[in-house]
């Protein structure tokens, strides 16, 4: 398969490229920026005209017939999508509605450093091929976090993040950037650095401008601020170094800096336990509304959706997304996985497995029902790579593929939900392309 060979060769060339260590200093803002591309440009609608480009692929420069992502800013400097192959008919990307992307992560860094396998994304060509064949968006799992990008004060190491972005460009896949402002996975030099407020403000500004400008035109959605509220809706002023030392006002600065560097990217808040209407999401709602009121370029709200079969599901997800939608924000499911208690075989009970598959579909259904929910990302593909077992002892089985990339019932309920939504029940029941998943769901009693 020539395109797979091309992709492998291109990725290998990138991985071989020298370590990108640069000194700090922001590149200039895009002078031609015309405001966020998000609102309107990518909105999914049943009546949206058919694009003549690559079916199932998001908008990209270089893909014929596709509106250019870079219309609201500069073009991505990491290559073009020319020659990208179409996703397979039975992939998730191909059956998503026009304008909606189905994402996964580029696994690597973080907990993988302690695993007995090398980082999946840079080291496993088969893994990359599965991602390219099935998905239309990718989030670097750890490579855009401070601990990955910032080996020392004033230094940047972009090697791994560049490779993901360039690979995504070549395959006409969207990128979600994650994350610029967070309390977790920060380097020790920062957390223990004893900097003054003025110094921290300058360090943060340099980081946001340097990173966002580097990937301007390449990253469609940025998780600008991650997990800034506790469950009871209080700002994390103790754990989050920026909020603690600089106060909440710095949030306005961070969104403004990011917007200046890439006016085409949609800028998100992102959090867990942020699916339903609760104290935490009330706090986000109020904060975002107040910021919009004073012209801060907040553009989206992401519900991570790390769910567990141990807990019930708050079905106010759709209503929650609708209220952010009504504020004019994009919404997204940014990190879904559905875990549960596992036995020695690493699997949940058949009942929990079926319940998890249904829950995936339920969350997707909610997103499909909300106009501005145009991005749905699963936090991984293979169970073997998932962060869940290392973080939630005794739980696992949370993702949508297992073994040698075999599709699980949770993959198939997503496929069915998308096909029924875009093409109707008849297509799902009769199209040969979906017979494998029909069989898997039959067997699972789904
Ligand atoms: C996780 C990664 O998957 C792990 O590899 C890492 O060790 C820890 O972080 N919310 C987030 C993600 O916003 O960045 C987290 O990712 C999962 C929870």
Q: What labels describe this entry?
A:
disordered N terminus, 446 residues, alpha/beta, two-stranded antiparallel sheet, single chain, 38% helix, binds (3S,4R)-3-hydroxy-2-oxopiperidin-4-yl beta-D-xylopyranoside, 8-stranded parallel beta barrel
What does this entry show, briefly?
With 446 residues, the chain is of the alpha/beta class. Helix content is 38%, strand content 15%.
Strand content: 15-25%
Number of strands: 14
Q: Gap between N and C termini, in Å? A: 34 Å
Assign a percent range to the helix content: 25-40%
The structure class reads alpha/beta
Characterise this structure.
The chain is α/β, with parallel strands linked by helices and 446 residues long. Strands 2-3-5-6-7-8-10-11 form an 8-stranded parallel beta barrel, surrounded by 6 helices. Helix 14 (350-369) links the parallel strand 10 (330-341) and strand 11. The longest helix is centred in the C-terminal third of the chain and has 20 residues, at 350-369. The protein has helices at 2-16, 38-41, 92-95, 120-123, 125-134, 146-149, 159-170, 188-191, 197-214, 241-246, 250-261, 279-293, 317-326, 350-369, 388-391, 409-422, 425-430, 435-443, and strands at 21-23, 101-106, 137-140, 155-157, 174-181, 219-226, 266-271, 300-303, 306-308, 330-341, 373-378, 395-396, 401-402, 406-407. The structure holds (3S,4R)-3-hydroxy-2-oxopiperidin-4-yl beta-D-xylopyranoside. Residues 110-111, 141-142, 226, 272, 304, 335, 387 line the site of (3S,4R)-3-hydroxy-2-oxopiperidin-4-yl beta-D-xylopyranoside (XIL). (3S,4R)-3-hydroxy-2-oxopiperidin-4-yl beta-D-xylopyranoside is lined by residues 110-111, 141-142, 226, 272, 304, 335, 387.
